[in-house]
Amino acid sequence: MTKWQRYAAYALAIYALSVVVLRFSSGGQGWGTALLLALVTTPLALWMGRLRSRLDERAAEWGRRRFRPWPEERRR
């Protein structure tokens, strides 16, 4: 699967899950409202996932470039 196909599959899965959760939650939204709200929540969820992965990558890079060892490693 290519990168874009995987991205589209994630987006479709998040959209479908959002619709089902919004429709059958305790608030009981109608189908039309659930479909529209899922259109808003899907890009937001994808953006938050991308942001988290970028932050994780930068944290790992910062950990590799750290010039002083962690306190636990100094005691060894």
Number of strands: 0
Shape: elongated
So how many helices? Answer: 3
**Helix-and-strand structural type:** mainly alpha
Radius of gyration: 20 Å
Q: How many structural domains can be distinguished in the coordinates?
A: 1
Oligomer: single chain
Low-confidence stretches: none
Cα(first) to Cα(last) distance is 45 Å
- Helix coverage percent: over 70%
Q: What do the pLDDT scores average to?
A: 87
β-strand amount: under 5%
Features of the shown structure:
3 helices; 76 residues; single chain; mainly alpha
Structure, described:
- With 76 residues, the protein is an all-alpha fold.
- It has one domain.
- The protein has three helices and no strands.
- The longest helix has 34 residues, at 31-64.
- It is elongated, with a radius of gyration of 20 Å.
- The chain crosses the membrane at residues 7-25, 31-49.
- Keywords: Membrane, Transmembrane, Transmembrane helix.
